[in-house]
Amino acid sequence: MMANLRCILVDSKKHRAWPALNRLGIGLDNEVAAQIAGLYATCPDELQDGNFGTTCKTIEQRRGETHGDDSKLTPTERRFQLLLAAEKKDGELYDRVRRMVAMATSQGVAINYTQLETDLRFWGDRVKVEWATAFWAAKGGAVTEEAS
């Protein structure tokens, strides 16, 4: 069943996932739930706290990426910024999430799929800010404004 669920992530193979989605009670028109099922089939390590920003920060840490100087982004940071800029309407968002889930799998990082499903369903500035806060706040040190 897991192999069939992963097929939902590939346009030319989506039809293979439909019977498995139906057995799970996921409507074929429920794109977000179908994507989450496919992602779970790719990386079944699940946790109950944090959001995808937390997941991405953990990936960066596990990869041992550090900042030589603050003007350069780490490779994971660059990918994370592209993810935050992704649009839902053309499928770009799901592609970028899928790539980060693959990285999570390779680094042994668990994902909060319940929160990810909610966030993808309501993708917008609020979710992006929550993810960004989780990702960059984990660096430590508060950001303060300088008074003029």
Give an overview of the whole structure.
The chain has 148 residues and is mainly alpha-helical. The chain has 2 domains: 1-42, no CATH class; 46-138, Peroxidase, domain 1, CATH 1.10.520. Helices cover 59% and strands 0% of the residues. The protein is built from 8 helices and no strands. The chain has helices at 2-6, 14-23, 31-42, 52-62, 75-85, 92-107, 113-121, 125-137. α4 (52-62) packs across α6 (92-107). It starts with a helix and ends in an 11-residue tail after the last helix. Mean pLDDT is 91; it is low at 140-148.
- Tell me the number of strands: 0
Name the structural class: mainly alpha
CATH class of the largest domain: Mainly Alpha
Please indicate the percent range of residues in DSSP E strands (runs of 2 or more).
under 5%
Count of discrete structural domains? 2
Note the overall shape: globular
Rounded to the nearest angstrom, the radius of gyration is 16 Å
- Main beta-sheet annotation: none
In terms of topology, how is this protein built?
Blueprint: H1 2-6, H2 14-23, H3 31-42, H4 52-62, H5 75-85, H6 92-107, H7 113-121, H8 125-137
Helix pairs in contact: 3-7, 4-5, 4-6, 4-8, 5-6
Write a brief structural summary.
The protein is 59% helix and 0% strand.
Which features would summarize this protein structure in a list?
148 residues, 59% helix, 2 domains, disordered C terminus, globular, mainly alpha
